[in-house]
Amino acid sequence: MTDSSSNLSSGVIDAESTDATTSLIALREVDKNYGDVEVLKNINLDIKPGQVTCVLGDNGAGKSTLIKMLAGRHAPSAGAVVLDGEPVTFASPKDALNRGIATVYQDLAVVDQMSVWRNFFLGQEITGFLGQLKADEMRSIAAEELKKMGVNIKDVDVPISTLSGGQRQVVAIARALHFGARVLILDEPTAALGVKQSGMVLRFVRAAADRGVGVILITHNPHHAYLVGDHFILLNMGRQVLDAERDEVTLEQLTLEMAGGGELDSLNHELQR
């Protein structure tokens, strides 16, 4: 972990030392090609502390490629990734994580039969003499961090597979915050959840931003985005077709743009003929 993120072990960013107008991470005129296939073109994005930036788009819009660049899995073909005001090239996803960029994918990277606390510390275990796990310490920390997030899990020794989908998502979010995430990327966290479980996850998305983290919510659901979002980016076939603050767009406009906007009007006109 770099010095700039070493004071984040509690998962809370010092609001006094964080300028809310300064981007934590940004994309500047970014393109991404795979051979002759152009996946993203001229993308500009600013992720600021304490804000939820919602990136919307249908399947094939380029959302997954955007995640991979921010998470250090792929470098842009053109343009720059800017971290704390300086262009950066991530050597690997671990390099991005060490710089405070945490990504929670849909599969959550959990081991179903392991306990909640073991999954909380997966890959970040606390060890003592000869590498022996400090199980009691990790168990206590996991329970306390989840309690801070308002997650009511009576026993962190139960297999994580016994939790609901929403609870597993929140465990992954709490884990990222505990280990110093400054930027939290969430890949379709509500895609497979019902209304109640989605509401649980969205509350914790908002709570993460309220703790000073810059949150990127990837979703195809404009209703979920509008419940928690401060800024909205809409991708369509790799192009950035909407870039708006919350007070610049209504839910109805966002839904219409997501659904195709003018394309729907044209189709409706054609079908009415």
From TrEMBL:
InterPro entries: AAA+_ATPase, ABC_carbohydrate_import_ATPase, ABC_transporter-like_ATP-bd, ABC_transporter-like_CS, P-loop_NTPase
Entries under PROSITE patterns matching the protein: ABC_TRANSPORTER_1, ABC_TRANSPORTER_2
PANTHER family according to UniProt: CARBOHYDRATE TRANSPORT ATP-BINDING PROTEIN MG119-RELATED, SUGAR ABC TRANSPORTER ATP-BINDING PROTEIN
Domain ABC transporter positions: 25-262
MF terms (GO), sorted A to Z: ATP binding; ATP hydrolysis activity
Keywords from the named record: ATP-binding, Nucleotide-binding
Organism, as annotated: Corynebacterium anserum
SUPFAM superfamilies named in the record: P-loop containing nucleoside triphosphate hydrolases
Protein name: ATP-binding cassette domain-containing protein
Keyword Magnesium: no
CDD domains: ABC_Carb_Monos_I
